[in-house]
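Notes continue from the previous slide.

Worked example: a multi-chain complex. Inputs as given:
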Amino acid sequence: GESVGLHLPTLSVQEGDNSIINCAYSNSASDYFIWYKQESGKGPQFIIDIRSNMDKRQGQRVTVLLNKTVKHLSLQIAATQPGDSAVYFCAFNSGGSNYKLTFGKGTLLTVNP
Amino acid sequence: EPEVTQTPSHQVTQMGQEVILRCVPISNHLYFYWYRQILGQKVEFLVSFYNNEISEKSEIFDDQFSVERPDGSNFTLKIRSTKLEDSAMYFCASSEGDRLGQYFGPGTRLTVT
């Protein structure tokens, strides 16, 4: 039968490997970006954010890289653990809007023990 | 760690009925939001609320929807006459301010029959 909904990009890694999840945005006026983790049946969980005056920001085991020239955002997870398995979304604000977040399509990360 | 809470976790209602979804944002936050996520799809912005008024709303947020902050802690979303297509997860979020991170609640699953 016909399938509906998103066909998520998937990333499968081995426990202990580093993971890189990518996101593209289209609005050059976007100046604030957030990465969220969403586990099945739960709400999006804030991971890390970055403003457009920065290219890189590090948190605990996570790093976000922002390339404004090509409108690309990435999330790097070091030493990936089974508990990192989830859907990861980037979200960004829009030109003229300080509040509304637009969410990206999401990437399903599966960590194999 | 403070978190956004939402009630109920699951609401089943008949088409045409009114529903009120409730949220308690993080206590020192000033900006409040509602988003929804239809099963298998992206998270979509509905409305933002600041200083007791709507600051921005999406095209989804039509006259059937309203928001209210009835007291110092609760933030509600009302759907006056539910439609089948309103079935979704509804997430409340809050933030301290502009570009300071939006933190999401666990969601209310609304099922319209």
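Summary box: Chain A is about 0% helix and 55% strand. Chain A touches chain B through 27 residues (CB under 8 Å).
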